[in-house]
Amino acid sequence: MTTLSYQIAFLVLAGVLANLPWLNQRCFFILECETKYVWVRLFEWLVLYLVVGVLAYALERRIMGVGNVHSQDWEFYAITFFVFAVFALPGFIYRHIR
Predict the structure, then answer these.
(1) In the chain, what are the domain boundaries?
(2) How far apart (Å, rounded) are the C-alpha atoms in residues 53 and 69?
(3) Burial class (CB in 10 A: 0-12, 13-18, 19+), 5
(4) 61, 74, 79, 81 — which has fewest CB within 10 A?
(5) First-last CA distance in the chain
(6) Could you tell me the CA-to-CA distances from 38 to 6, 12, 50, 78 in Å, in that order?
(7) Alpha helix (H) ranges present in 1-98?
(8) Residues 6+ apart with CB under 8 A from 38
(9) What is the pLDDT of residues 39-83, one digit of tens each?
(10) pLDDT, tens digit, 9 for 90 and up, residues 72-81
(11) Torsions phi, psi of 32, nearest 5?
């Protein structure tokens, strides 16, 4: 695979994972919930943000080679947090505004 195909696949995966808490009724994708509260959905969303971050780190390590992963400051993580929030907007609208 080329670097571009890795990037596109990662962005699609991030978009899907950002919307999962709002598109299903299971708590943490395992337990059947009678009512799933907003704070549970937000906690699931935060956990999936961390999962996407770990996947991004692993992908960068694979593409760039061992020892060449760029160090990031807090600004990078703030921006990725809000980009992940923008990715989650369709699922949020589907669940709470529709």
Answers:
(1) 3-97
(2) 13
(3) exposed
(4) 74
(5) 39
(6) 32, 24, 19, 22
(7) 3-23, 38-64, 74-87, 89-92
(8) 96
(9) 989 999 999 999 999 999 988 888 877 767 888 899 999 999 999
(10) 899 999 999 9
(11) -80, 125
